[in-house]
Amino acid sequence: MTGYGGQAVGEGKSTSTVYTFLKTLHFLRECCKRDIESGRMRLASIGVALQGDTTHAPMRVSGNPEATINLVSIDQLVDTVIPQIGQLTKQLQTHHIVGQDFDLGETRDQFCAGMAVSGIEYVPDHAFEQQPRNSLEERFFRATRVYQPYMHAAPKFALGRETKQVYLIDLLTLVSEFKAQMNGADNQAHPDNLGGMSLECLGVDSAQHYFDRLIEKDFGFDFLGRWRDMNTCIRFSIKGLRCFDQTIQFSNESACYTSHDAAVCRYEMNEETFHQITYNQLDPKQAFFKGLVIIEGDKEAGLKFAFFLSDYLKHVDDHVITELSGIK
What is the rounded average pLDDT for all residues in the chain? Predict the structure, then answer.
């Protein structure tokens, strides 16, 4: 398989932008498809529709279509680096990886054509700020704010000597390979629920990032709204390489960090269990009964939260579509 990479951006320079854009288009298509299948047609209120095989999603994106991104073929990286592994050299060697430039307008056109999505339009910052935004535009803008510098001027791979072999990048081939991976019958690496897909689009890969995004209401505000009558503080202790130990207060349709002294109970689990629960691959109640989650303190409050979260995740597709549509 031929893969491609772009400059990583976002929090900790850990987010691959190119594949995030493709995941977002895939996510929009799935939202439209499942909204239609449910018969509720909530996204129609903001103009989202299925036109033949094409998903039309009217969404303005703050960005400059003439800004360029610089991509490099993974084949080139492998061919350059792998032969050097295991070879001992007395002197420092430099190997040049030469990228290929694409402007954002061309990239959007090719990606949207390959993913069968229409309606994505770049607009200048001032126009985006001044004109009213629909709920899809607002959610996308908030969720992708870490990408904003990338949408106007992206860093590039350093220019180097010309290589003997030319590694051409074809954007439609990239899209085809991405779709084959996402739609593969044996695909276990990516979630098949909209909640998990939205977290993938956001690049959520740790408990810290998850709760930061939840508190900012980049996702999950329908969950917080449905728990509007609750006022409780829960401590989450996640064990692992990216450990997390914070207390979250849930009240007034919001969440925020608070002191451990306020916690009425404490959840303890490892990173894998936390990931499986938040990506809707493991039921919170079952995780507790299997001993994968330990609740200390007020177990009644802890179980009440687990049961509420479990019920919410059972219908997470509906909740995600509700959030995108802006319908309350």
Answer: 84
